[in-house]
Specification:
single chain; alpha+beta; flat
Length: about 70
C-alpha cells in the first residue's frame, strides 16, 4: 500500500490527511533499504504537513552559510 492509499499523519504536529492531500504540499518519505542486505526496504512512511514541511525547510536554510 503506497502513501496515496493511506491516511497521513504529520510526524511533527500530528495533523491528519488523506492520500488525496499529497497534492496540497505534504512531504512524504520512506527509509532506504539497509546497506549490505537483500531485505526489502522498510514500509514505514514519514509524512510532514505543508506547514511543518515549510518550517523544517526554513530551519535548514537558516543553517546554511550565506
Amino acid at each position: 500500500m503506497g502513501p496515496s492509499e493511506d491516511a497521513l499523519t504529520c510526524a511533527h504536529c500530528g495533523r491528519t490527511g488523506t492520500g488525496a492531500d499529497l497534492v496540497a504540499g505534504w512531504s512524504v518519505s520512506r527509509l532506504p533499504r539497509p546497506t549490505g542486505t537483500a531485505l526489502p526496504p522498510p514500509r514505514e512512511t514519514r509524512a510532514l504537513c505543508p506547514t511543518c514541511a515549510r518550517s523544517v525547510l526554513r530551519d535548514l536554510e537558516g543553517k546554511l552559510d550565506p
